[in-house]
Write a structure and sequence with these properties.
Layout: E1 3-5, H1 13-22, E2 27-29, H2 44-54, H3 68-78, E3 96-97, H4 100-108, E4 126-127, H5 135-145, H6 153-169, H7 177-187, E5 196-207, E6 210-222, E7 225-233, H8 236-248, E8 259-267, E9 278-285, E10 290-297, H9 300-328
Parallel strand pairs: 1-2, 3-4
Antiparallel strand pairs: 5-6, 6-7, 8-9, 9-10
Helix pairs in contact: 4-5, 7-9, 8-9
């Protein structure tokens, strides 16, 4: 019997492996996610579904493709690497739809834009809200989030226009779906912010050119009551996060178990150097769920506060929604 052990030096490891099977090979070697020396090995996460679903090949052992995405992500996690969002079959972008016409077509017939049902490999469909969105995107996202939106074309048109204006300013809701959810609920008059930051100051102490100490001082107003607090942290953003939660925990105890998981800054094209706008993406978790929020400003501290505020408002909003549901039931 013949087999193949391909490397990806020419971006052909998967193609060569499949061609070898077509030519009679009965044994294929590879690695999960293609991890390996130099440019990597043949990616079994792509080879296996291609053999099973496209080439209709039989295996000498049972396989369950519905666990493929979770397996891929688990190996990325063990390797301490971020998953490749554009990986075929298992990447977050593999079944993501952005343009309004695309989304409208997918809702009518998914096979027009999806080569397989995403659930087959344990993935799922994603609809992105962006400046390319149409009304179909909004309706789909609202349904996905469990937000009741009537078939109101005027509302959908107005909200799509609002999203486009925000994206023109630099906002991006792919990866910040919690901010989008708050925005949609606010437009539907189902949500308003639970607190207002009336004062913010950040101090960074430098020793030998390095930031040794960061402190944030905040005044936060909740229902007419003002909480004045300060907290230090590992950098200015961590200090802001700590101070904001410290100020709010008296009013909203549920924020105590939140933590900042990831923080990304991107300098946008407008302006020169330090005068340019920045977009801050924040990922937060309460141990059970993880969510992303966004902020945009010429001031990185202001952008960070926007994203952090959305994150806390999202947590409080969902906690309050659960309480209301529990009382009603």
């Amino acid at each position: 019997p013949l087999g193949i052990h391909a490397h990806n030096d020419g971006e052909l490891a998967v193609a060569n492996s499949l061609a070898a099977v077509e030519a009679g090979a009965v044994h294929v070697q590879g690695t999960i996610n293609g991890f390996g020396e130099r440019c990597g090995n043949a990616n079994l996460v792509s080879i296996i579904p291609n053999l099973a679903l496209k080439m209709k090949r039989k295996f000498n052992y049972p396989i369950d493709l519905s666990g493929l995405t979770s397996l891929s992500h688990y190996v990325y996690e063990v390797a301490n690497l971020s998953p490749n969002i554009r990986a075929p079959y298992v990447g977050k972008a593999a079944f993501t739809h952005k343009g309004g016409i695309h989304v409208s077509s997918v809702l009518k017939n998914p096979r027009m834009y999806e080569h397989i049902p995403p659930e087959t490999v344990g993935n799922r469909r994603h609809v992105v809200v962006s400046d390319l969105s149409g009304q179909s995107n909004i309706r789909y996202k609202a349904k996905e989030l469990g937000i009741p939106v009537a078939e109101d074309r005027e509302f959908s048109r107005r909200f799509v226009q609002h999203i486009k204006e925000l994206e023109y300013q630099g906002f991006q809701f792919d990866g910040a779906e919690a901010s989008f959810e708050l925005l949609l609920n606010a437009e539907l008059h189902r949500y308003s912010p639970f607190f207002t930051i009336t004062y913010a100051k950040v101090n960074v102490m430098l020793t030998d050119g390095r930031a040794d100490y960061s402190e944030a001082v905040l005044k936060v107003e909740v229902d007419g009551q003002v909480e004045h607090t300060a907290s230090d942290g590992n950098g200015p953003v961590n200090a802001l996060d700590n101070a904001l939660r410290k100020a709010l925990v008296r009013f909203y105890p549920e924020v105590a178990n939140m933590q900042l998981v990831d923080y990304k800054v991107r300098v946008l094209g407008e302006g020169d150097g330090t005068a340019a706008r920045v977009r801050v993406l924040v990922e937060s978790s309460d141990g059970e769920r993880t969510w992303g929020t966004v902020g945009v400003s010429h001031n990185i501290i202001q952008a960070s506060l926007q994203a952090l505020s959305d994150s806390l408002n999202y947590k409080i909003f969902h906690n309050r929604s659960k309480e209301v549901t529990g009382v009603m039931s």
